């Protein structure tokens, strides 16, 4: 991932958090090297370790005597940086783990309110039907990428470049927000993570959408990312190919 020599500590942290919050642990057997998925639902001893680790995360390493943490189970997916318009900015790595079956979950009710197994399409459909909006732009965009990625292409579709949206406010409608992403012809690549928000007229924004222009942006209305949409066009013309989309359309 961009700016990091190794993602090893992030993989360990991600798998530890997954274990603490869901009771699911991805490991490999030290002798056979076979990949195994453990769950506290079926293992009382493992659940005891989970409680210890939640109280003291440094004990996580003590868990691994007969098996190793399966770091390769995680597929690096993307890296997002919060836009400059937010008071607090987060540099966040996203990983995905391909699974064949639904794994039993023991939810941590201190950090989660509910859980369910659901497809990207189902999540996006629920978001479209919501009157208040459910998904923030990064999660929305990445679910769209997952929806349009074949299961066996997950590793190939990893985006190693940090994505930092640049915000444009609509002059005619202050509640309408454009989040412009790398490759878009309105994106400013120089010092990209620190570009201040702009205000543009809808007419000027429309001029940027000429036939051969690269479009890679999201639009929504405040509050709560209402009517969030992703717009992509001519993405194959971007020499950097940092979004890895292979479709051209506006999606709800």
From TrEMBL:
Record carries keyword Thylakoid: no
PROSITE patterns: NUDIX
Cofactor: Mn(2+); Mg(2+)
Keywords, alphabetical: Hydrolase, Magnesium, Manganese, Metal-binding
Gene Ontology CC: mitochondrion
Annotated GO MF terms: hydrolase activity, acting on acid anhydrides, in phosphorus-containing anhydrides; metal ion binding
Keyword match Manganese: yes
Residue span, Nudix hydrolase domain: 1-141
InterPro entries: NUDIX_hydrolase-like_dom_sf, NUDIX_hydrolase_dom, NUDT19
Family the UniProt entry places it in: Belongs to the Nudix hydrolase family.
Name the record gives this protein: Nudix hydrolase domain-containing protein
